[in-house]
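Case study 2.
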Amino acid sequence: MFGFKKNKTIFFVFFSIFLFLVFLFLIKNKVIALDSCSDNFCIKAGDIESIVGTGTSTNFQNRSAGGQTATGQSESDNFKDFSGILYWLYQTPPIVSNVQLNNQNDITLVENSTVSISAIATVYDAQGCKTISSVTAKIYRSGVSGGKDCTEDTNNCYAVVSCTQDSGSCTGIYDDDATYTCTINMQYHADPTDTGTPWASEYWRAWIKATDETGLTGENYSPENAPDVLSLLALDVTSPINYGNLNPGDKNDPLDKITTVTATGNCSLDVNLYGTNMSSGGNSISVNKQKYALSSGTPYADGTSLSETAQEAELNCPKTTNSSSPQIKNIWWGIEIPSPQPAGNYSGTNTFEAVKNELPWP
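Prediction:
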């Protein structure tokens, strides 16, 4: 009996040592028949093979609404590896922030031309900034019909179909945000929103939308109440006014010499008119011998005498809305040659100044 007990004890010791060695072997090779879980994922027992530097599994489970990251080289049906950073494939949409139009400064247009105007934004994506597939924009007058869904119109709504990622942003493999610039060529006749215009209670705004490679989108607006597009008072005039060959005592009756005023800014216009005496050598013809009118067939006697002091003519030229067909208005002119008056080639200067028309605009 004593010998049997001794042998039994020895067997039990050897068996215990064997189990311990097996346990150490399993730990060393990471094949543990236990579930390993956390709040955000679970590794199912027996389904992980471990090779040096690489882990492969089909049993990671996402248990939270947000993504998690881990270092290392990994492959899984439920994860995506971005050069050493492991992302959950649960996607979140891009976030657009810090939208600004023209740095929120008022916009100054250029007569009879376009000016480059930009909106900027920061775009963040939890899956990495390189997953952003497109960024688009609308730049529009705040009260335009449809808001950000407005129809393109060079007076009040501009679309940017592809914004540009700024150089130097989203350069690292771990970067999750990038800055973008969305640029338009704003026409000289874009609607003004400053004082004395039909849109004085409005402002201009940018809306920027980002789309990632899975089709998820994010969007945002520039701040309210700024910037304004400023009034651009500008005109062009045909010249010169050629009164022809007249003798002393002759006159243009009715007024028949035409100057055409073209609105080359973004406002409805009246015009200030003034001039100088016409001279030839030491001889002159008084400026008030020139007369003008805003309608054809006006008798010389009914015209308005030109002066050396500016006088506003109620031209009521509409605002230009299309650069290919700008708005125009005619002014009719004539002169009476005093008698007597020495012969000569007389010339002078008539000045036309753009004046913002009173409301309501035609």
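Residues 141 and 204 are 4 Å apart (CA to CA).
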